[in-house]
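Our consortium's second objective concerns turning raw sequence data into structural hypotheses that experimental partners can test. To show how far this objective has progressed, the report includes one record in full. It was chosen at random from the queue rather than selected for favorable results. The single chain below, 564 residues long, was entered without modification.
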Amino acid sequence: MHRLQKAAAEKLEKFNKLRGHEVRTGEFWDIVVVTAIDEDQKLAYELQLSEKLRRRELPLGIHYHVFADPPGYKIGNGGSTLYVLENLEDKYGESLRGLSQRLPNASALGKIFTALPLGDPVYQMLELKLSMYIDFPIDMKPGVLVTCADDIELYNIASTEKIVFDKPGFTALAHPSPLSIGTTHGVFVLDPREESGTSQMEYRSCYRFLHKPSIEKMYENGAVCKGTAMNVTNSDFVYTDSTYYIDYATVQCLLLLLKDIRPIICEIDAYGDFLQALGPGATIAYTQNSSNVTTEESSLLKVRQIIFQWLQGKALNVIVLNNSKFYHIGTTGEYLFHLTQDDNFRSELNLVSSAFSTCPSVVPGSCIIHSVLHPSCSVGPGTVIEYSRLGANVTIGEGAIISGCDVSSDLHVPSGVFMHSLSVKVRGTTSYVTVAFAIEDNMKQCVTSLTEIDKLQLFGNSLEKCLHHWSLRVEDLKFSGDMGKFGLWNASIFPQCSDLRRSFTLSSQMICSLYGKSTFRFPKDIRLLSIQEVLQYKNLEEMLKFRQHLYEEIQENKNVHLNI
């Protein structure tokens, strides 16, 4: 454990020395690319990158780009990666080398900009990713490194070793994991002809790549290893995927592949659809398997077959990191657990309970990030507060997330609640909406008929019962978007207000009416929006302006304390 902590600290220190300084050739990435799902998200990312560069929070003297997916069909992280390569080829030609990030559209400002209780000013996922990969560019031939926005890889290697990306084809990092983790990730079947060593790092060849396989399939294909490995409590484990590199020649192959399948009208997985085609043991059979795809389009089968034809026979090299850990923080539950309860993760990254904030003494197990709290506030253990201001005598329960909120004095937020305030612009007018749900609520659940909305659960109640507490009739409820689907995501139940603080107050009163079994009545003529509509109308500049006001207030408070 200590070795991982030491290795992470050394990488963070290296990155800190580059923050705000011009970097030399080979010292850092030549190009950093963040991908966005649409033009609105691209704007959000560009605004945040510009602000980071203005405040000198990133290394300077390199190219930062945001590329949006083409309008129309969802193309998945694989399709996004192909279009990124094309954009880079158009701009830079043979000088191609960079970091491609695929970001799920789960929040208005993007998971790559998720705040972490680390650094001053605070690190977001972007800085942490760049820190953990700080040693890669100097030993990497021209090519592209592909990674996701919601996972963190920690690793340690011997001082005499270094990670080198110089082989043709694909080269992936591999982490020892329990078999249960393998069922939700990619699993490498290592070439059995190669001898396995005992060092912290090994260069191996992958015979076949399995995408989210069953445990039975892992055993059948020889993916299960025996022995001792970090983060694995019993003798059987597998090597799972995270980040991978593509050399320049293979990038050219992918560009030809793009010409063969464009326009892309289906979701391509940068892991399952690319990596399953690689290695001597790859077969075309996976192209028929739709069990691990989010939506099944008729064109997906044909596209997978074309991908297989282009990539078949190319190498999948594996850099086995035996002393490593892989953390996923893509859900609210994972985010809360790792930031407030996971002592190993917190110690390995040296996370703090209060990062770049003005707040009273923090309850152990809670986490305050880039926020201003009145000294009389009370925050329960297991709770995360980010980019928020809390007034006097505010109490927040356990295991809650408060994000982007301006909370009036004397308000109480129950345990296990997620509340996120967003600015929206509707018909040219700026207003605010605070969305709220329980951490355990299933936002993806849908029904196909209004007669079934009692099956939708919100805060432990059926949505129909919630409407009753809010003095609404079922027939009054509106849904946005696809009229054939009714769910919490597109139910128009959150009040639109002219004031940020008022928005939070109304939404908290809605919640309290459910917990107190009382009746709440919306103000007359108030408009209600769904989460889907809020993201559609989001006013990114206003949301970033609120963060900037907090930043200035925190800096001013710090300067006052220094003068004292």
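The partners drew two points from this record. Residues 95-107 have pLDDT under 50 and may be disordered. The chain has two domains: 2-328, 353-551. Both points have been shared with the crystallography group to help prioritize constructs.
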